[in-house]
């Protein structure tokens, strides 16, 4: 860094201190004498560390462990209760998030040679960012990694009722007795899973479409819906909020009940009275107040980029993670950040960008994701419907998961798997696994999709016995 008290100069300036911004800064300067700074107005570590991935998986883990034990004779007899201990679960969640103390993350950044500035970063010119009265100038690049924020649909009375968003759900302190969840995607399904674990008595899911997890293969949403219904969830498909009334509203903070009971009128006229409302109806890129209009970039909607993660027309400006609208997943944002960091480093050193490492192509059709419901949903690539819409002539391997490894996990194991194969190229373009223990299957499928491994070659990738991964052999056998 150099400059006076009001102006500082770095090689790389990153706006947004989540894991995506951290990776971009780290890769851009690692092993060099270049300098970087992260500008963050909340917590270094970002949404994932304190309000999303990490606390949500912390909340889901105990219920999953108890369900696994309850499935096995010899273990189930030792269980006095299959419901997780509420105090223990929330305590573990707080341990994972560090009580929303980001000091260890700041320490990591500084140990990596990255400075941290607290405040809102605003682009005020080419390679120039303002934080209050301070100006920060970038020699090489400005990287926007501001993520996304929860969307609240424009429904009468909903915003005024101060509904929970995902931040409240992952940081809950009060467990509502009755709750209505708006949405049927990943956030909604995972939240419903842990809310039921923690003892919510009445839980209603309001889903505009006709299935859960609509971006996945249909069987995935069906199996998750069946499991949630069996645990007591009331899922209303083809239904929407019409209006919300909550006379006693209070700004009580994350995870507290935000006032008294609410009355939610649904399409069709039904009224649901609840103690809390959780809105899990999507997210939108956090591009407001970045000053983008001042450099000729649209402020509403995602910040579009090419595969180098560069904003077209602004060769010094990069956007990575949720903010660019490509894929709203932490691991894919970190992938984009690694690409962007490598591109910045290469350009700073005068190297060409011919290598595949400088182009983010995986998020066009090889995106892996795990939904940590019970059962788990693990998928990568395209669904059969998406492949056919893209004009691909596909063949499909589709079957229940029933191998020795699953029987050892649970004598009554229930799971399903599907491969989508491009017939012309004889390569896997999509894979979906649903069932306990399937989260660890998705990386092998990701390698197959990204590597475009011919199906005949996959025959020689022998699964270990007795594991759930033996389903790969059964799927390939079905294609013979």
CATH superfamily of the largest domain: FAD/NAD(P)-binding domain
What is the total number of structural domains? 3
User: What proportion strand?
Assistant: 15-25%
Morphology: globular
The radius of gyration is 24 Å
Number of helices, where a helix is a run of at least 4 consecutive DSSP H or I residues = 14
What summary fits the major beta sheet? 7 strands, mixed
Total strand count, please?
21
| Terminus-to-terminus distance | 62 Å
Summing up helix and strand content along with how strands pair, one would put the structural category as alpha/beta
Corresponding CATH architecture of the largest domain: 3-Layer(bba) Sandwich
Summed over residues and divided by their number, the pLDDT gives a mean of: 96
The CATH class designation of the largest domain is Alpha Beta
Oligomer: single chain
Q: Which segments are poorly predicted (pLDDT under 50) over 5 or more consecutive residues?
A: none
Domain FAD/NAD(P)-binding: 10-336
Pfam family, one: Pyr_redox_dim
Keywords: FAD, Flavoprotein, NAD, Oxidoreductase
GO molecular function: oxidoreductase activity
List the helices and strands and how they pair.
Elements: E1 7-15, H1 19-29, E2 36-40, H2 46-50, H3 53-70, H4 86-97, H5 103-111, E3 114-118, E4 122-125, E5 128-131, E6 134-144, E7 148-150, H6 166-170, E8 178-182, H7 186-197, E9 202-207, H8 218-230, E10 234-237, E11 241-245, E12 262-266, E13 271-274, E14 276-279, E15 283-285, E16 317-319, H9 330-348, E17 368-371, E18 377-381, H10 384-389, E19 394-400, H11 404-409, E20 416-422, E21 427-434, H12 442-450, H13 455-458, H14 471-477
Helix pairs in contact: 1-9, 3-4, 3-7
